[in-house]
Every structure is written in C-alpha cells, then in structure tokens.
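question for whoever is on the cluster today: can someone run the full assembly for these? two chains, 530 residues total. i dont have access anymore since they changed the login thing
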Amino acid sequence: MREELETLVADYLDGTLDVGGRERLARELDRDAQARSEFVDQLQIHHRLRPALEESNPAFIKSVLREVKLLGDGERFSQGVVQQIKQSARRRLRVWELAAAGLILAVLGYALVRRDGPERAVAAHPPGVLLVVGSLPLEAGDVRVKERLEDLGCRVTAKTALQTLPSDAKGMALVAISSTTLAADVLDVPGELTAKFRDTETPVLTWEPRLFYDLGMIAGSVHQKDWGALRDQTRLNVTNPSHPLAAGMSGKVVVNLQPNHLSWGRVRGDAIKIATLEGDPDRAAIFAYEGGAAMPGRIAPARRVGLFLFDTTSVQLSPQGWALFDAAIRWSMNR
Amino acid sequence: MTTSPIDPALDQALGRAQGGDPDAYGRIVAAYQARLRSFIAGYVPRAAWVDDLAQQAFVSAYESLRSFRVGTDFYAWLRQIAYNHLRAELERTNRRKRLETDYLQELGARELDQRLDRDNPQEDALEALRDCVSRLPDTSRDIVRRHYGEGLPLGEIAGSLGRPAGSLKVTLFKIRVRLKECIEKKRAAAAPGVS
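^ ran it for u. tokens below:
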C-alpha cells in the first residue's frame, strides 16, 4: 500500500480523517482491489485488538446482565398486563362515562383558554414539564432537550428516575422520560420506573423504547423485535403528514445531522402512527395515543407519545428533527 | 482450537442460569465475552457495532438457554447465535442505498461479509492474536498494549515516547500489518496437512 494511502487508513482508524480525506480514501479504495483488501485487513486487526488486550470489561458484563434481568421484568409485567386488561374490561363502562364528562369539560376549558389567546396563557402560566433522566447533572442530550423545552416556554423540573415519585407528575402539563433513565436506574430497581408513570393522568412522552411496552403503548416486549434503538440513522419516513405531530412534513425527513440511534416501537393499528424508520414501515419512530384511547396494554389515562430520540440524538438534531420534537411536546400538552 | 474445553464450574453456572438465575449467567458472560467480541470484531465495519452485537448474542442465548444441552460446547453454540446476528446486520447494511458519507462503512461491510463466508468459523482468532502480540518487539508491544489494552490516546503515547503523533499512527499501521502476517502464518501452520 502506498505511503499516502497508509496515512489515510491510519487516520481513518484513529478517527481523525476529515471529510475530504474520507472522500480521497473512498476513491482510492474504489479503484484498487488490493488496497481494499489491505484496508479490511487493517480494520479487522484494529477492531480485534481491543477485546483481545483488555484486562476485563465489567461495563459490558453489567450491560448484558441489565438486559437479561429486564427480560424477567418484562415477563412479570406481561402477567400484570393480563390482569389489567381483565380489570379494565369491567371498568370500561365507567371509563367511557368519565371520558364523556371529561370531553365536555375539555371543550368548555378550551373555549375559555382560546378567549385569552394561547401565547398569553403560556406566558402567564408556563406549563410544567417533569423531565425524568438517568443522572444529574444532566448528560449532553438531556441538556439540549431541557434547553429546547425552556425555549418553548416550559418550566422544566429535572429529576432522576430513582428520585422521582408518581406524585411529581401532579400539576405538570407533561412527563417527559429520557432514554438515559434506563442505564442509571432500571438495573438496580427492576420495574421501578416502569410502574411510576404507567397510570398517571398527566400526558407522558418518552424516547426510552423499553418503556413503550412497560407503559402499555406496544403489544410486545421482545427487544429488537418489538422495540429497540437502531443505530446509524439519519432519516425518518413521515407517513401521516396531516396530523399535527408531523409538523407539516411528509415523506423522508433528515432528523439527525450525523448518523445516530433512533428509537422505535412496533405498534398496532390502534396507535396514531406518524413516522417510521426509513425502509421499515413496521417500526414506528413517532406514534401516539389520545387520552382514553385503547392501547395494547391499557386504556391511555392521558395522551401518550413515543418519540424517535435516543440518548445523544438531540445533540445533533436537524432543524426538521427539532420541529418534530416541538410538535410532539405541543401535541402532548394539547397546546 | 475447534472446540472449547468443558469447564465444570461454568457448566454449573450454566445449569443455574437455565434455572433462571441471571447472576449465574454473569459468570458465563465474563468467561466468554472477550472471545465472542473478538470474533465479532473481525467482521464489523465500525467498532461501535462490536458490543451491540455481542450483547444481542448473549441476550438471545439467555432467552434460548433452555434449549442448550449442558455439557456440550457452549461457546460454539453462542458463536452461531452471534454469527446469525452479524450476518443479518451486514446484509441489512449492504442492502442500504449507497451514501457518500457512509461509503467507507458500506465498503467495509461488503468486504467483511465476504470474509465471514470464506473464513473458518471454528478458528479462534483471539488466542492467535494474543500470541502474535506477545511476539512483537518490546516497543511495538508496549504501544499496542497501551493504546488498545489501556485505551490511551495515540497522542499521549507519542508524547511519552517523544515522537510526533502522526508518525506513531503510521507505526501502528505497520504493526497491524505485521500482526496480520503472523496470524496468517499461524493459520497456515494449523491447516490440515501442514506439520
């Protein structure tokens, strides 16, 4: 391999090759089969050396065990869901009576708010958002989310999943649960976070895909089959452009400026499906339920939204990505 | 090199894990993670895939653990599960439309997919690589261990050696060439009919 090519490959593997260098390297490899083979040799050895030489990798072991323990938690919860469905069938008549009364009150309330104008109402009483996160101080992705919520006029209270209580949702316009919650807390207290906001009558928006099942928003609990976070993604496919959650967009939309994870869940026909992963119409990246709607696991006590963000996605979200985020926040809070 | 020796303590842990004890499974993960991650690492275009795919394989194995017969080769069974995940991921990447920004990754995925087909799945790349590292000259071995084993950035290692970082990158490139040659020689020596 020529010296210049060696330098390009060395920089690429070190993560220091700029865009121009990547393009030069791509051109060289495209026309030289021998160079391609040597490039892949380098890639193989480079990737293998780390696992070969590490003394141990406790973080990896812990991560696998977390997944394994949560599988057990999912099974326990699914049994709980069966019970819940049985109970909800008995209560359904009462729920519909309450929903009808709620609808009348909502119409009256909307008329009153409309008279004052939404901007003035927001300025006078900023809506409270409980942001549930994995750790404090906030991680980079959660910092961006909090800043954006504040830009939207929200009063944000950030708490860790372990600190927060179901009663914290009272008086809030929204509970927003970040995907960073999982790493910090669910391993130590299986099922704890999943149960906290399952029945809250405050709207809940989450981008922790595991919680889609725990909150009753999807039917299946199996990682990678029913929910997950797909890496190296930049675009979504907006399939329901007329809904407010689509923010006026349709078709393929770039949401990440750099490839990153996108959360998804496999929803049923009863969900409002807004967007899917690109090339996979069964994996919903934005989906929602109206309050009182039947979800796979329970009747939605208030609006519920599943969103495509993941831990660090918001650090490099595109303007379209933020527009979808804003739309999700506003719709969740019915504003 | 073709099968894993049966370890009675790990077999006991497997038995407990089959009974639903996730902590016992932790012992299994600790015992096999380096080997499995090394296998996966040889066929992924980006380092970030290694732990994701290894984790998927371990979790899938746990979910199917009742179908595993204790006393047989657990690693071979686990590696087959990892192979299936790896193959699915490479095929998915290869199906994606070519994008300029992802080209190097896609090129890697395409070439590695072919190697996954071609290589001997029984081969234990981990031990061969460790042995080849141990045969490197002292300075080269030290650079490799500090960078890959301890995770030190090349700039820091270069500073301690009084060398420019750029020249150390090229040195590392040449060390990787040497390691590849060493592994090829070991592979050839282990091939049937070679004494």
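summary bc i know u wont read the tokens: Chain B touches chain A through 62 residues (CB under 8 Å). The domain at 124-195 of chain B is CATH 1.10.10.10 (Arc Repressor Mutant, subunit A).
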